[in-house]
Structure prediction request, 244 residues.
Amino acid sequence: MPTFGVVVYMLSETPHLAACLKSVAWADEILLLRFGGGAARFEAEAISALRVHAAGSAAEAEKFAAEIKTDWVLRLWAEERLEEGLADEICALLGEGSRAAPVGIPVRSYILRRWAEGGVSDPGPALRLGRNAREIPSGWWDKTPAASRTTRGWIGDYGCAKLSDAVERVQSLSDFWAERLRAESAPPGPAKTALASLRALVKMLWINRVLSRGLAGIALSALASYAVLLSGAKHWEAKHVKKK
Prediction:
C-alpha cells in the first residue's frame, strides 16, 4: 500500500494543534514546521511518526518538507483537522493505487458558532493532497492547476472560532504570504493586490451563497479578503518604505 505523510504548518501558537495532530496520527510520517515564536504544545510521545522543525523562512520550510519521502503528502495548517469520514476516504484512495494528483479537499471554517464554506487561507476545495511535499499551500495566491478529483469528506478549520484569534491568524498569514510574494519574480503590485482581495471576497460570498450562511459566511469572506489585501500591502511596504 502507498505510504502517507503529512506536513503541518504552524504560523503562531494555537490551541488547536493537538487536535490537528490527533486527526492524522495514523500517518506514516508527520512533519510539523513552526514559523515565528509559537510554541508547539502537544504530547509528542503519543505520536511516534512526528518530527518537528523550526523554519525561519518559507524557503527553509520547503527544504524541510522535502525530507518526507512518502508516496502521498497531505498539507494542513495547525488550526485544521480531518473531519469524520475524511481519513477513511483518504485511506481508500491510497488503497486504490491511483496516481491521480493533486486532490482537492473541501475546507469549512467554524466561525460565530456556525460552519461556513472555505477558509481564511483557502477558498476550498483546496489542493492539499498530492505527490509534492515541497509545495506549501499558499491559498489565495496559489496558481496551481485544478484538482484531478475532489473528496466528499472535508477539512475543518477552527482558527476563526474566536474572532480575536481570527484577526491574529490573518496577521500571521499576511506575514507569511508577504514573504512568499517578495521571492516571486513578478510579485503583485497595488492594483493586482486590490483585485485579488476583491476576487477573494466575491468568491467566498458566492460559495457561501451570499446570505445562506448568515453572518458567519459574511465575516469569513471579509477576513479572507482582508488577509489577501494585508499581505499585498505588507509586501509593498517592505519593498518601498525605507526603515529609519
Observations:
- The helical segments are 17-23, 58-65, 86-96, 163-182, 190-207, 214-240.
